[in-house]
Structures are given as structure tokens and as C-alpha cells.
Amino acid sequence: MFRIISGDYGTPPTSCTWLWGSLIIQPSNECNLEKFNNKQSGQDHIDIAKDITKIETVKEEDFGKDKKGAALLAIGGAVLFGPLGLAGGFLGGNKKEIILLIETKVGNKFLAKADEKSYRKIVDKSNCPTVNLEDNTALEEFGTKNKSNSEETNLTSELERLASLKEKGLLTEDEFVTAKAKLLNS
């Protein structure tokens, strides 16, 4: 799982696809992106190995066991490998999400949410140093200044909810932009 939450490509961008070592991002209509790493058909094709210059880990959240995932792994393991597979399935299934700030060679920045596996892949392929932020510098940059952790989580959830409503056609572009600005300025 890798999803862009906000940044220079929009909150969220129209689309983001991870394909063969590249992020293909279609900026949202609300943003006026001037700098592209590799522009193709209005999309920015970011080569993870060449175009990412900085990755900052903003926040890590461990959700413990993903019970549904662990149960599915256990059932699948039991069918394929018997009792040993059953035990292995119940041992797996930990869920961890990481919020990270990524900067590209042309200076575009975005805040993304990734599971641990996707985070590892992007860090390993980018060949750039990662920084763990002790303060909320990246979150402040995207309008969540001076919020507690639960308020930050609520803000992220609310932004995702607004984006979902817009995507489903329940909010117009103007309503979405107004609601987002209200959230970010509160």
C-alpha cells in the first residue's frame, strides 16, 4: 500500500501508480504544477532511483495484529502446509503504517502513507538517506501545525474522507477546495 496524502501534486493527486521502479503521478486539477521530473501526458513520471532526493519519516504507527489478514494467512497456510502453515499464519499479519515526506530533484514535495513493505522498497530503491523527524516539520509544512498526534490522525482521516467524497462526485471541486482550506486552517 502506497498512497499520496497531500503535497505539490494535490490533496490527493488525481492518481498515483507505482510501476517498475517509478511513481506515475497525475496532479489534481486544483494544483498548478509547474515543475515536473519527467513530464509525459500531463503526468509526472518519477524514477525512484534517480529522481527522489530526500525521504523523511514523519510518523510510524503500529496497529499490532491485522486479525483478518492473520486469519487468512493461517487458513491458507494450513491448506498448503498443514499445522506448520497454520502456526505461521497466526505469527504473521502485523500492520504498520508509515507517513513519509518525499522530495524530488525538481523540488516537488509530497506526504505519503505506506505500509512497511512499500516503505522499505522505496527507501532501498531511492538510494538516498532517510531522516526520522522528531518534531512535526513535514506536517507543519502541509498545514497541520501545532496539532497533537490524535488531531493529526483526525486531520489525515478527514482529508481522505473529503477526497473520497469528491472522487464519488458528492462534492464539487469548489466545495472540496473550500472544505480542505477550512480544515487546514483550523
Question: What's this, in brief?
Answer:
The protein is α+β, with helices and mostly antiparallel strands. Helices cover 41% and strands 31% of the residues.
Key features?
single chain, 186 residues, alpha+beta, five-stranded mixed beta sheet, 7 helices
How would you describe this protein?
It is a single chain. With 186 residues, this protein is an alpha+beta fold. The chain has one domain (2-185). The chain contains 7 helices and 9 strands; from the N terminus they run βββββαβααββαβααα. It has helices spanning 48-51, 67-81, 83-91, 116-126, 137-141, 149-167, 173-185, and strands at residues 2-7, 15-19, 22-26, 39-40, 43-47, 52-65, 94-104, 109-115, 130-132. It has a 5-stranded mixed sheet with strand order 1-8-7-6-9, with helices on both faces. A hairpin with a 2-residue loop joins strand 4 (39-40) and strand 5 (43-47). Helix 2 packs antiparallel against helix 3 and helix 6 (149-167) packs antiparallel against helix 7 (173-185).
What does the radius of gyration come to? 18 Å
Order of strands across the main sheet:
1-8-7-6-9
**What's the domain count?**
1
Structural class: alpha+beta
- Write the H/E string, N to C: EEEEEHEHHEEHEHHH
Helix content: 40-55%
The biggest beta sheet is recorded as: 5 strands, mixed
Tell the overall outline.
globular
List unreliable stretches of 5+ residues: 134-139, 143-149
Task: List how many beta strands DSSP finds.
Answer: 9
Q: What fraction strand? A: 25-35%
Q: Helical stretch count?
A: 7
The chain-level mean pLDDT equals: 75
Distance separating the two termini: 29 Å
